Amino acid sequence: MCDHVDADLAPADRAILEFAMKLTKTPGRMSEADVERLRARGFCDAGVHDIVQITALFNYYNRLGDGLGIDLEPEFDREPGWKTE
Q: Is 3 among the domain residues?
């Protein structure tokens, strides 16, 4: 599954992915309303905390790999112009 927007997901799963995408792409725009949307889907504070921690961890791993030029998932092509020398 590569596109959560068109995927057939449970409402709670879609809410997690929408939250994670916003946190990844525009972290400065996160607000209490984003957390409230997760709560409306049944997540408690501990669940929200876990979602934030996991999103942050994967963002860290991806930036570490990209910054060092590590090919963590060779089956996916890198963006055009990436140099590994």
A: no
